[in-house]
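Consider the tokenized backbone below.
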């Protein structure tokens, strides 16, 4: 049995109190230098969650809808139409954006704020581009090994997706449609995220005569005669799916519409090239093989 004197007891209490003060001081120091991140891109937000950095999020853009918890953060609106005042009001130390960020005046203004680390991450439509973005975002704060585990998991999933694709010899022709308003429908050409996804899933892009997006041309649509029509879920809802497209009676003979072969996937999942990329490629490949 150990007997403590009153003096020893007082020293013990003093020591505990001092340790508590030191711990509190250390915690306060960590919090004072912890990042305050604004994510301007749904895929960027997904990566932040996968790296367990969401505790540093102070704001997100309107496309940050996954995971659902991301919607709880203050929204700064659409990444293309940002307000400098609205973003700065959240006192960020880091702003991570895709190349879609805008308008130009916003970019120029934020670049001149010295206390903010503003990064526009390359929108590479590739698996390698996804890995690069994960590595860039990981530099913000210690991810406790999550970066390595996430990349390892993605590499395994990616190999599995390609192994499955190797068993499919059929290469269907796919036309991708995108619309933010029913009166304006765009069709994907070469060098777009949609074109990359079609290629990864084992399909052939139906429109290759131009780069980027162009308004829908009915005659070109009929001539392309795709086996499948790929849309974002948001576009499908806006246009009314196959029935909405068939309001253009001339499209009734198009193979994809004739057989109701429409595939819709959430815009952020399909075009964001985030952590769900291997899963999405596999899902799309299965739909094209049906």
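A designed sequence for it:
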């Amino acid at each position: 049995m150990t007997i403590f004197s009153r003096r020893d007891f007082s020293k013990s209490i003093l020591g505990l109190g001092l340790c508590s003060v030191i711990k509190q001081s250390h915690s306060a120091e960590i919090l004072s230098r912890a990042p305050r991140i604004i994510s301007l891109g749904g895929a960027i937000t997904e990566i932040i969650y996968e790296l367990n950095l969401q505790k540093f999020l102070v704001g997100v853009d309107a496309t940050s809808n996954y995971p659902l918890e991301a919607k709880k953060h203050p929204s700064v609106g659409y990444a293309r139409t940002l307000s400098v005042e609205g973003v700065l009001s959240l006192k960020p130390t880091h702003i991570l954006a895709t190349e879609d960020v805008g308008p130009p005046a916003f970019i120029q203004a934020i670049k001149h704020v010295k206390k903010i680390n503003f990064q526009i991450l390359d929108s590479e439509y590739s698996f390698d581009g996804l890995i690069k973005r994960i590595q860039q975002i990981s530099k913000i704060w210690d991810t406790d090994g999550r970066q390595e585990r996430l990349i390892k998991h993605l590499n395994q999933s990616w190999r599995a997706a390609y192994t499955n694709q190797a068993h499919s010899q059929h290469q269907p022709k796919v036309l991708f449609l995108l619309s933010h308003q029913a009166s304006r429908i765009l069709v994907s050409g070469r060098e777009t995220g949609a074109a990359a996804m079609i290629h990864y899933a084992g399909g052939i892009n139906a429109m290759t005569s131009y780069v980027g997006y162009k308004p829908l041309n009915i005659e070109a649509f009929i001539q392309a005669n795709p086996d499948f029509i790929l849309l974002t879920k948001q576009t499908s809802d806006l246009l009314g799916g196959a029935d909405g497209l068939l309001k253009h009676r001339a499209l009734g003979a198009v193979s994809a519409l004739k057989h109701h072969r429409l595939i819709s996937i959430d815009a952020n999942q399909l075009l964001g090239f985030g952590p769900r990329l291997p899963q999405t490629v596999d899902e799309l490949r299965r739909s094209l093989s049906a």
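The first strand starts at residue 37 and ends at 40.
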